[in-house]
Amino acid sequence: MTRARQDRLLGLLARDDDWATAATLADALGVTPRSIRSYVTALNARVAPGTAVESGPQGYRAGPDAATALRAAGEAGTPRDRLHTLVRSLLAAPDGIDVFETAEVLHVSSATLDADLARVRGLLGGTELTLERSASRARLRGTEVAQRRLLSRLAHDEMDAGSFDLAALRRTLGEGSVGAAAFGPFKAELVARLGDLGWFVNEFGITDVVMHIAIAADRVAHDRPLDAAPDELPTPGDRSARTEVAGIIAELTQRHLGVELGSGDLQHLATLVLTRVVAPGGTGGAPAQDQPPIEPEVESAVRGVVEQAAAEFLVDIAHEDFVLRLALHVQNLLHRSREQAWSRNPLTRSLKSTYPMIFEVAVFIANGLHERLGIPLLDDEIAYIAMHVGGRLERSRRADQLLTATIVCPGYYELHELLRSSVDRSLGQAIEVVGVETRVDPDWSSIDTDLVLTTIDPAVPGERIVRIQPFLTDADIERVQAAAGRIRRSRRLARLRTELERYFSPSAFLRGLDASAGVEQVIRDLGATLIAQGVIDDDYVERTIQREHLSSTAFTDALAVPHALGMTATRTSIAIGIADPSIAWGDGRVQVVALVAFSETDREAFQTVFEQFVEVFSERESVQRIVRRSTDFSGFLDELVAVIDG
User: What is the pLDDT of residues 206-259, one digit of tens each?
Assistant: First the structure.
């Protein structure tokens, strides 16, 4: 557990790439600041004389050797390495291993190996494998497909946040596996060949497929091929595409890896490529003509769920091109779910914390597809749906979201026209110029645009006034962008402040959440405060717990926002719980829990409150300030407003 916390500490620092105090990190990990200091010492010892974690007056931050220290977590001698070595031994020995001989090889006691075998059993859930023990022998029972799934799980365990790491893959398969150096050229040529066929390649998926190809090549090299598989894709067109992809994989594995795959492996890998890696190359948003048709049941389910989500969240996603692309993704997901071939998404955590509203729409869609099609709900798969949703919303952004600007540039030949042209070209995606003042003494008070870009000194300086040069420079562009960002943020937070003051109440504030109570009990405790106000009923609380089971609502390292999918509260209200120290929530720990009850009449507030509230709690210093000083409801509201106001 200590080494796992060391790894998590380094992961937090590497992800944020900023200074963090020992107290902040201790809250995130659920330990004491003293433990943080000892973890830092141990992490730096991994890469001595290098530096995994830098120390300074502001606390700690990831050092230049952080990545090396994380990789060292999987090297020989660690419990995880020993566990993986044990699993590889079990997979390589159809007749099982001798427990005492294996303990001697690994230089551990038989009792330690028995504990490791218990950990192996913990890895087997959902793999259709069983671990049998008879006297001194232990063996794995299950199909070759199930054994490969276990190897895939180990490989993902070695890789940080789902990213592809050839060294980690080689550690999983063993040093005698197919050479890692061959996979760079292999992947590059595979992507190029698929592109030649008119496919767009999903780089997030291709890494997983390369991992499966590596596993297949290694197993075949050890005389453990897959039996010929029945046709998994239904139409003749699908079989034709699979045959073509299988031919490419056969050629590349023979040339780059020196392994000849059989028909069973080639069919399986070609199916993974077609359902995980490629997207149609057609135009206009619809599938290409040679793309397999979308099953009517899938298209109907996706269309219905998308229309529900559009109405529920007031988001502009009910478009034909979006429905067709998402339906194709869901159809591929159905094929992958039958194989339990889940696709990791390295952007899951960042999507969840940076775009909680988009992720919430994706959870709603995923839940609807689960109910209609039986698709399992996994955070990485939900994140792919969120990427579809985010892409659609990005394409449909309204022009009125731009900030307006007036240029003040005293007339001299065509100087003001050249300046406006430069501003439009360099800043057109952020601002819209609606006026140009060419007088040397303009009426500054009459200029009411969001920004004023001026080449002369204003009569009265202001936050919305930006001094620029007559010939726009890179520094000018950066200053205007920074000013635009400040204005957008201040407006968002001002709206949030107005909304929050309406939704809080002293009777729905709890400090000192019980860390041992568990997530469900915390939700019930906070829900009870809103039930007492007549805002929600017991059913809303139970549906909030059900929503939590779909995907953790810990949207940042400090904040959880449990809520039900349906907006059935009598009015929108928020119950706040403060935990000091932090409490376990999902895969992480949080210090603030905001149970949000939304009403049907406050749909627009959902977006304002939900996304901006998460934004406030994404900054560690703000969280610590709020938690430490919120001894009562009045203190919490004062500190929250102070943070919002900056």
Answer: 777 777 888 888 888 878 888 765 445 444 445 677 888 889 999 988 888 888
Residue 414 DSSP symbol? T
* 155-165 confidence digits (pLDDT tens): 766 655 444 55
pLDDT exceeds 80 at position 498: no
Residue identified by tokens 């019980």 is 514
Q: Are 351 and 315 in contact (CB under 8 A)?
A: no
> For residues 598 and 607, what is the distance between their CA atoms, to the nearest angstrom?
11
What whole-number distance in Å separates Cα of residue 152 and Cα of residue 352?
A: 25
What is the Cα–Cα distance from 620 to 23, expressed in whole angstroms? 10
Instruction: Report how far residue 371's alpha carbon sits from residue 98's, in angstroms, rounded to the nearest whole number.
Output: 46
Q: Which residues pair with 61 in a beta bridge?
A: 54
Cα 365 → chain centroid? 17
This model's pTM is above 0.85:
no
**Which H/E stretch holds residue 20?**
none
| Domains of the chain listed by start with CATH number | 2-70 (1.10.10.10), 79-160 (1.10.10.10), 178-279 (1.10.1790), 296-395 (1.10.1790.10), 399-496 (3.40.50.2300), 504-645 (3.40.930.10)
